Fold each of these.
Amino acid sequence: MKFLLTSGGINNKSILDALVDMLGKPIADSNALCIPTAMYGHPWVGPGVKAWEFISGKEENPMVSLGWKSVGVLELTALPSIDENRWKPLLQETDVLLVSGGDALYLNHWMRQSGLADLVLSLNSVYVGMSAGSMVMGPNIGEYFVGWTPPNGDDETLGLVDFSIFPHLNHEMLPGNTSAAAERWAAGMPGPAYAIDDHTAIKVIDGEVEVVSEGHWKLFSP
């Protein structure tokens, strides 16, 4: 599994070029599965019209609408109730997973409950996250981003990369996501942490981390 962890989707040429390079073939020749689950846990984006817009490729932040050969939906909340043989082959055949934003802890919960968390590292595909879809890959998200409260009550996430992410840095619609807020957030994180804006992504291949950006970002080291 290769990771392309974005704040705002594939919304500039640098991030798009990085994605195509990771795929190793054109987007038009690649099959995708979109995962909208995180949206349902966040009051701003789901359920309802925003989830439909993401799945249908009418999303504000480009992911599903990039011109894939095919796009399917993998809804994690449904997976525990159906036979694994009905969805695991889809994962093994897909070229890319497109994971929406929303609530990172809700997504973490259902990635674990569905069994997807146990399979991610064995997949020969590209994982593209947006916002919460990126944050869930780190070891934890920090109290600042806790919304939906998981059964264990903490902010722990999957830890498939060794850094945490503060998305939407200095976003005009999120006045609280300032550089100063990111610095305070990072001070409470136990490991490396990146603050990234919507024109920045973090590329991870075999543990090697590269920032792809046409915007602003900052690495905070413990």
Amino acid sequence: MASYYYYILSVHIIFVVSWMAGLFYSVRLFIYHTEAEDRPEIERNILKKEYEKIEAKLWNIITTPAMVLTVLAGVGMVCIRPDLLQASWFHVKLGFVVALLIYHFICQNIMKQLKHGKCKISSFNLRLWNEVATILLVAIVFTVVLKSAVDWVYGLVGLIIFSVVIMLGVKWYKHYRKKHDC
């Protein structure tokens, strides 16, 4: 029975990678979609239609199926090894996974708002939003790899510092773009 666990774990990891790639690329497309508003009308209309098509395909063919398969593989792993539910690190991981699922569905809502021309989020704020997935990914990986070997206080402080560094990087990039008209 234990060997099945590693097959399911492998599938879980593969679809986590696919899900994260879909989330990262989707929000990047949202940024470009939002920035298309600043283009001349003909160009804007062409770009928006193309972004809507690409976003929908990415979301429906890669991102959401990968999310579903990630969750199903995770449930499969817990069914094979129910002792995971007793580990405190696993509860922390599940908390971050729930946050990532919420992030996923907020992204889906942003995509719908963009399609209907109702999204009020700036490209800068979408750049910040894009980093939330990175922060959650880092939190999940460190939680799974380090398990109980890490003091949770140090881990939380490290995650906050990591988050601040990423946000400062996004702010620096905004300043750089304004200065160099990128």
Amino acid sequence: MTTIKDTAEEWEVRATETPFVGNKTSVRTDDVVMPGGSVVRRDYQVHPGSVAVLALDDQGRVLVLKQYRHPVRHKLWEIPAGLLDIPGENPLHAAQRELYEEAHVKAEDWRVLTDVYTTPGGCSEAVRIFLARDLSEAEGERFEVEDEEADMELARVPLRDLVRGVLAGELHNNCLVVGVLALTAAQAGDGLEALRPAEAPWPARPFEV
């Protein structure tokens, strides 16, 4: 049986420059040597990476939030997510922080649901999506949010309703779409206990356990 698996590879870069540096990301321009020997220019966003959390409660509902996203001029239903702000940061710790900050929730059971490159043709962002279960209210005061997060709505929605919304073209956030469909596939396949452990290696963003 043929194994279908992505493989790491890096083509020669003859020249590189960074015409824009932002607060969290930057834009890089590389002159890349193609297989036939020609050199082409590729512009892309350099991204530190992200984590996302599909938090599933004991009633089969997923914790989602609605947030304004200016580039697409939409309020999108999403799952909790955030940047890997610290180089080499353990993605599980980052995911636990995001779940606390955005939803004031903690989870006792964590597994890797899937790893994705969000837009590999134009951005280096890699996202690890976790499945979090055995949820409870976090202790202490709520994290003080600001900017777009200050306007967020929180809800718990049955997984089947999210799948229907994805397939109907009503839900568009990348991590939500990938997360709910991956969870549905896992449930129908080998089961959630067969998912990778929360500390599974992540070659796209190596980290210290």
Amino acid sequence: MTQGEGTAVVLRPPRNTLNERAVGWWRTQWLLLAAVPVVPLVVLGALIEPARFWLLLPAAVLAAAGTAAAVLLPLWWFRTHRWEITEDAVYVRTGFFWQEWRIAPMSRIQTVDTVRGPLEQLFRLATVTVTTASAKGAVRIAGLDHEVAADLARQLTRITRDTPGDAT
């Protein structure tokens, strides 16, 4: 991702991966999401004998689908999510079939936020959100080690402070 004077930007995959603990964080989110409909269906199936089969069958299907998603999707996401910051911009690439590249020039950054939800705290992770004036919305880097996220926020703050604003 370099830019010479009078030349176009050459995109290459960003260098950095997320923290490996992000896989466990995503898996936990999937399992909790699957548990929301499964637990009431199992409880009702145990309590209402005439409807037991019709309650436990969808519970089993949802539990199997949720478990499969929890095993496979986080690994896939971990392999495809990349990020990098340079003196010029923040680069984020997500997705596999529908890849999305987000580039936030330093001169356009308005705020840098670090967020740690309860599960992120449990996994010692954080999300860095870089807000620009873009109609597309903020650039998010989720699944970072919490110390890396804090360092990244400090570094982005320093770089954006030292970068002249974009007049366009």
